[in-house]
Design goal:
By secondary structure, this protein is an alpha+beta fold. The chain has ten helices and 18 strands.
Length: 360
């Protein structure tokens, strides 16, 4: 079953545009364009998580209908998490108060979210059909303000250590993302900066930086226990395999180089690492790989197209606990989150409403 957008009445929207001031795509030219079309009181720039938290409270106090974020998937997570936290906090206070919202607290429902294509990976922007050109970004904003983007997609999220995101992973994929961000930062002032922001830059980072590092390490042993509703292993075609895996049962035990979870098909650049993520609403796709470094590099094009090479296992899960034999690099929403030897990945309680920019 594929999640379908829901149609809402067309009307003018109160729209806030929240941008990562440090994102490569948020250039002086983009800022100039935005200043021409977006009222200054509706345009926010954030450089730190603390600033994002302050902006989140302001957005809710002003009761915006829609919040558009620009700067990549990490920027979306950086703004969406404090907004959803404040809404959840207000709802809890309202339940205690008998259904009323106390003065000075946030409203009880979150605004719609939209992901502008102003980052590097742009998994969510690709997922919701955001425009890729600079003029297209402005057009997406103006269409939303005019009420011309009425459809929404229920965006289900995973949650790791209290942080919601459309995807998360440990192992080779997390190390590639971390290495890629370092490479991109190192080349931002060089003649290769444009190449670094392309799929070729991502692949180059994986081959030249991550692969040599991973060759020096053995694959970690992992035990994964299903802590949610019954999980299912799925085949390359996305269909269920075998019997349901019950709560408390071991879902997998063995060596892995990648353990990743997602509720949207890709990581960005069209990299279809979770081709079956939309086939089981309320579940994320868990992807495990025991491929060695050379095999993983060789199969990058295969995985990119959404195919499942030998050595990859897929599951639909609600919540799992992973215990590794050694600390593994972790990324959540494309942001590095250090190393973990144990982590719980579960479905977030609430779904976000994501603007669907695709024209009917």
């Amino acid at each position: 079953m594929v999640r379908t957008p829901t149609l809402r009445a067309v009307r003018e929207e109160r729209v806030a545009v929240l941008l990562n001031a440090q994102a490569r795509s948020v250039t002086d030219a983009v800022r100039t364009d935005l200043a021409r079309f977006v009222p200054p009181e509706d345009l926010y720039y954030s450089r730190t998580f603390r600033e994002a938290q302050s902006i989140a409270r302001d957005v809710l106090d002003k009761s915006y209908d829609t919040v558009l974020t620009g700067g990549g998937d990490g920027t979306f997570c950086g703004f969406a998490n404090p907004i959803l936290d404040l809404v959840s906090e207000a709802a809890s206070q309202a339940r205690v108060a008998g259904g009323t919202v106390a003065r000075g607290t946030s409203r009880l429902s979150a605004p719609r979210f939209g992901a502008l294509r102003l980052g590097t990976g742009n998994a969510l922007a690709s997922f919701c059909g955001a425009s890729s050109r600079r003029t297209g970004v402005i057009e997406d904003i103006l269409r939303t303000c005019a009420g011309d983007t009425p459809r929404t997609i229920d965006l289900h999220l995973v949650e790791v250590d209290g942080k919601r995101a459309p995807f998360a992973g440990l192992g080779f994929d997390a190390q590639v993302l971390n290495d890629y961000m370092r490479v991109k930062g190192a080349l931002k002032l060089s003649a290769l900066k444009k190449l670094a922001a392309t799929p070729a830059g991502y692949v180059w980072s994986g081959i030249m930086h991550t692969a040599p590092r991973m060759l020096l390490k053995r694959d970690a042993e992992v035990e994964i226990v299903n802590e949610g509703a019954p999980a299912m292993q799925i085949g390359p075609d996305g269909r269920d395999l075998g019997r349901p895996i019950g709560t408390g049962e071991i879902l997998f035990r063995g060596k892995v180089s990648i353990a990743a979870a997602g509720t949207v098909p890709c990581y960005g650049f069209g990299y279809q690492i979770f081709p079956h993520a939309l086939k089981s609403p309320g579940r994320f796709q868990l992807r495990l790989s025991a491929m060695g470094v050379f095999s993983a590099v060789r199969h990058i094009p295969t995985v990119w197209r959404g195919q499942t090479p030998e050595g990859v296992l897929d599951f639909h899960c609600e919540r799992v606990r992973m215990r590794f034999s050694r600390p593994m690099p972790l990324q959540v929403g494309g942001d590095a989150e250090g190393y973990r030897d144990e982590v719980v990945i579960g479905m977030a309680r609430e779904a976000a409403r994501l603007v669907d920019f695709r024209r009917v």
